[in-house]
């Protein structure tokens, strides 16, 4: 985030015409805002749908109240919290017209979610077995190169 702030500041100083604050929002910034809102919406719908099954900590022990959520948005997106956060994150940099940070945020967050999904799904397969295998096979993550 620090890099993004520095990039925005330097570019606004050197090339003030490409940033949001100079003459209104261009099409790129409007696209970024739309992605920020879309990402936040996907994430929040996922949280509300999963209710107590949504946590920020990956569970490594199954709780008797732990259920595999496959309805609502989870019917179409296997990890809506991750997808939403990814879209939101990249969208913030598109909104700010930060070309270097767009690429950096996309790569860093993609790597983070690739590793996190692999780790989390290891436990989901242990907890739910075949039921999770079937669900994962039919429901994509929608994250680039993460089936």
UniProtKB/TrEMBL annotation:
Its main location: endoplasmic reticulum. Keywords: Endoplasmic reticulum, Membrane, Methyltransferase, S-adenosyl-L-methionine, Transferase, Transmembrane, Transmembrane helix. Pfam families: ICMT. GO terms for biological process: methylation. It is a multi-pass membrane protein. The chain crosses the membrane at residues 20-38, 85-113. Coiled coil: none annotated. It catalyses: [protein]-C-terminal S-[(2E,6E)-farnesyl]-L-cysteine + S-adenosyl-L-methionine = [protein]-C-terminal S-[(2E,6E)-farnesyl]-L-cysteine methyl ester + S-adenosyl-L-homocysteine. Its cofactor is Zn(2+). Divalent metal cations. Probably Zn(2+). Belongs to the class VI-like SAM-binding methyltransferase superfamily. Isoprenylcysteine carboxyl methyltransferase family. This is Protein-S-isoprenylcysteine O-methyltransferase. It comes from Chlamydomonas schloesseri. The lineage of its organism: Eukaryota, Viridiplantae, Chlorophyta, core chlorophytes, Chlorophyceae.
